[in-house]
Write a structure and sequence with these properties.
Pfam families: DUF1634. The protein is mostly helical and 131 residues long. The mean pLDDT is 87. Helices cover 72% and strands 0% of the residues.
Length: 131
């Protein structure tokens, strides 16, 4: 039985797969973030944070294209930021998974609705207001 057949999806509870996707995404994000935190603290053992003034993330942590090279260099802040990116991507992947499941089930009204939701989220992610 193929994963792209309607029978496969009818016999399995799609909500269970979606729940697992969300759970694993949060767990993976937590592991990455904790690992990044440990690396960051080990790289900056005597640094004392200043909580009186807010300083945003450095420029290199604001885009995925600049985060990945720093992750490969074991930059603790970049690894933490990657964990946050994975956490943000988790519900987006859930929506994509739902679109595929609805399409396989031939439930086209929900495919359209879910595509609209995905397009709104992606538009806000890529074209949102910058500070």
């Amino acid at each position: 039985m193929s994963i792209f057949s309607k029978r496969f999806w009818i016999e399995r509870d799609v909500e269970l797969y979606i729940g697992k996707l969300l759970r694993y995404g949060v767990i993976l994000s937590s592991i990455i973030t904790i690992l990044g935190g440990i690396i960051y603290v080990s790289q900056h053992p005597h640094e004392i944070p200043n909580f009186k003034t807010f300083t945003g993330a450095p420029e290199y942590l604001r885009e995925l294209s600049t985060i990945f090279p720093k992750v490969l260099q074991f930059d603790g802040l970049a690894i933490i930021q990657l964990g946050v990116a994975v956490l943000i991507a988790t519900p987006i992947l859930r929506i994509v998974f739902s679109i595929l499941a609805f399409a396989i089930e031939h439930d086209y009204m929900y495919v359209i609705i879910t595509c609209i939701v995905l397009s709104i989220i992606l538009a806000n992610l890529f074209f949102g207001i910058e500070s």
